[in-house]
Amino acid sequence: MLKCPEEANRRHLRYIQNTSPMRLSLHLLPVAIFLLGSSLYGTTLAEGTWTKSKYKIAGSWKIEETADGTFLSFSEDFKTKKAPDLKVAFNPKAFADVSAKNALLDALIISELKTYKGAVSIQLPDDLRLDAYQSLIIHCEQYSILWGGADL
């Protein structure tokens, strides 16, 4: 049993000095894999599944911060009905409080939706403050129809 922290530090230092570099690298491999994975895949800031309002939206979404910026991604199984003017936006209201009439009121439109099936990736503005919004919506601006959305 170790009697004091200094003794533990001395034993740890002796272990490092007497251990081959190959063996040390094997001990550090899990740490390196974790750090590499974190930088490749980024940090998930929010994620969820879609809730139907007027039309079904299948799949899930994720907001992820990477070295290249912050992205909103729709999953491979994303699917919804085509429309002439679908917009993806962040809304300051909870999704339950969003309607077709107020969907774009104080909302931040981040992209026009041009893909209705499959993976989608949208780079978000660098100055976006996610804490200012409570929901993510898909809305047809031309016909004022709330497709669906989700709480952040």
Query: Quick one: overall form?
Result: elongated
**Share of helix, binned:** 10-25%
Low-confidence stretches: none
> Count of DSSP E strands?
11
Instruction: Note the gap between the termini.
Output: 50 Å
Task: Give average pLDDT, whole number.
Answer: 85
Query: Please, how many helices?
Result: 2
The ordered string of helix (H) and strand (E) elements is HHEEEEEEEEEEE
Folded structure, characterized:
- The chain is elongated.
- It has helices spanning 5-18, 21-41, and strands at residues 43-49, 51-52, 57-58, 60-66, 69-74, 79-80, 86-91, 108-112, 120-123, 135-140, 145-151.
- A hairpin with a 4-residue loop joins strand 10 (135-140) and strand 11.
- It is 23% helix and 36% strand.
- The strands form 3 sheets. The protein has a 5-stranded antiparallel sheet with strand order 2-11-10-7-8, with no helix packed on it. It has a 4-stranded antiparallel sheet with strand order 1-4-5-9, covered by helices on one side.
- The protein is built from 2 helices and 11 strands; from the N terminus they run ααβββββββββββ.
- The longest helix is centred in the first third of the chain and has 21 residues, at 21-41.
- It has 2 domains: 5-41; 43-151.
- The protein starts with a helix and ends with a strand.
- By secondary structure, the chain is α+β, with helices and mostly antiparallel strands.
